[in-house]
Amino acid sequence: MDFTWFHRLGSPPHVYGLAQRLTPWLGWSAALLIAAGLYGGLWLAPPDYQQGDGFRIIYVHAPSAWMSLMVYVTMALAAAVGLVWRIKVAHAAAAACAPIGASFTLAALATGALWGEPMWGTYWQWDPRLTSELVLFFLYLGYMGLRAAIEDPQRADRASALLAVVGSINVPIIHYSVTWWNSLHQAPSVMRLARPAMPAAMLVPLLLMLLGFTLLFGALLLVRLRAEILTRERGGAWLREVLVP
Amino acid sequence: MSSSSIRVGLPVNEELDGGQAGALAAVALALRRDLTLAFRRPAQLLQPLAFFALVTMLFPLAISPQLAQLRLVAPGALWAGALLASLLALDFLFRDDAQDGTLEQYLLSGQSLTALLFAKTAAHWLLTGLPLALMTPLAAVSLGAPASALAAIVAAVLLGTLTLSLLGSIGAGLTLNIRRSSALLSLLTLPLSLPVLIFGARATQQAIAGAAVLAPLELLAALAVLGVTLAPLAAAAAVRISLE
After folding, report:
1. Which of A101, A110, A111 is closest to A58 using CA atoms?
2. Is B126 in CB contact (< 8 Å) with chain A?
3. Which of residues 144-173 of B touch A (CB under 8 A)?
4. Shortest Cα distance from A10 to chain B (angstroms)?
5. Burial letters for A81-99: b for 16+ Cβ neighbours within 10 Å, e otherwise?
């Protein structure tokens, strides 16, 4: 088999061009999917029999929470690839992931708090999922803090990559210990998310939003990746050819 | 060969009968070196302990002097104190050795850096975690824990601080040559330490209530085993990155 396409992913000029070409495709399909998902979720879907219209925040909350974890996994994988094979583009991708993931985590926490006020009667509940999400936010902050604190870019890459890998081993341990802690402390709160399967009118928009958010992450990642490559390769001869026609 | 190895006091592999014995001897030497150096400056050893005593003293002053109330917050107070004290102690895990070049000599010595850093971390635990655990009964009694709970609490702190030292060695390795890194070090280490806090506080709580403590203690032991297995590898990788 021919693996040159794969090897070329290690070359900054190639990845820069590829990212430039793919961004509009990902961005526009994300916009379409999110628009369709929002229309389906906010207008077409019937109100929930228990939560009324309040449940509709799930169309932002659940995809954000899903992305917060997926971005972390992506970041840790990119970091591990960079660490093992010393591929600069992989480090750049991991670095580009962190602020996006932190933003998704923050969005999940904020929407969770807004939803909690009418449903649970409080903005914050030490619910296992919320708590794990908060810890995840601090893991992102630690990653970005470590990057920012190390001046030498290559050392920053490798040190933060190691941290991401260590974190990815710890995330499941933290999640299960938090779940265990809470399940002993208190019974499940006012309501559970685990209900009988959602009707299709509610589920389809949610799936559209999930897919839309995933593509949105892809588009944001490619934009940030290009910015990272520009910063890292500044002074490179190939950039002059790309940027000055 | 061996101005460098003599200065650090590490045997180079060929000097001994190779392989296994050399590595073990190096680990023992590194351990002894760290203990000796630490005992020459006993004041530094007492600081985390004094800090722990002070933190646990804050709670009676801030909440209430009544033992019945203190008993409820005792697990949280003890573990928050233990976590912060071992975080404070992390500052002198690798720092001095990085500044005077000892770590670089370790790196060049031909011995396994993982094993040497494990020895350093073990020494660090013997100097901070162990005394902390031995001091816990005092703090626990002052917070209203019954005498019957003390054995389990000490066991929990022993296991918990071991994991904290191991996790801390990764963070300390990553922040080796960052100036004013203590805030960053806590940002890196505390989220990873939450399972220790949860299970440790749970064991303490159960012990104070007179309930079964085996399950949380076993989970603490499992975390410690995982830490002993993986953390030295990560710490060695971290130190390599910081020194390269």
Report:
1. A111
2. no
3. 170
4. 21
5. bbbeeebbbbbbbbbbbbe
Taking an 8 Å cut-off on Cβ atoms, the answer to whether A181 and B198 are in contact is yes
Residue-range domain boundaries for chain A = 17-189+197-243
Local structure of residue A198 (DSSP, 8 states): P
Among B163, B194, B230, pick the best mutation site for testing chain A contact (most A Cβ within 10 A): B194
Using a CB-CB cut-off of 8 Å, the residues of chain B touching A177 are 194-195, 198-199, 219
Q: What is the pLDDT along chain A (245 residues), one digit of tens a residue?
A: 677 877 788 888 889 989 999 999 999 999 999 999 999 888 888 777 677 777 888 899 989 999 999 999 999 999 999 999 989 999 999 999 999 999 999 999 999 888 888 877 788 878 778 888 999 999 999 999 999 999 899 999 999 999 999 999 988 888 888 887 776 554 444 444 555 556 777 888 889 999 999 999 999 999 999 999 999 888 888 888 887 77
Domains in chain B: how many in total?
1
Which of A13, A128, A116, A133 has the alpha carbon at shortest distance from A68? A133
Q: Which of B181, B226, B241 faces A162 most closely, judged by CB atoms?
A: B241
Between the two ends of chain B, the Cα-to-Cα distance in Å is 21
B54 touches chain A (CB under 8 A): no
Q: How many CA atoms lie within 13 A of A127 on its CB side?
A: 18
Q: 3-class SS at A48?
A: strand
Lookup: tokens for A4: 């040159």
How many angstroms away from the CA of A70 is the closest CA of chain B? 19
CA dist., res. A182 & res. B90, Å (int): 29
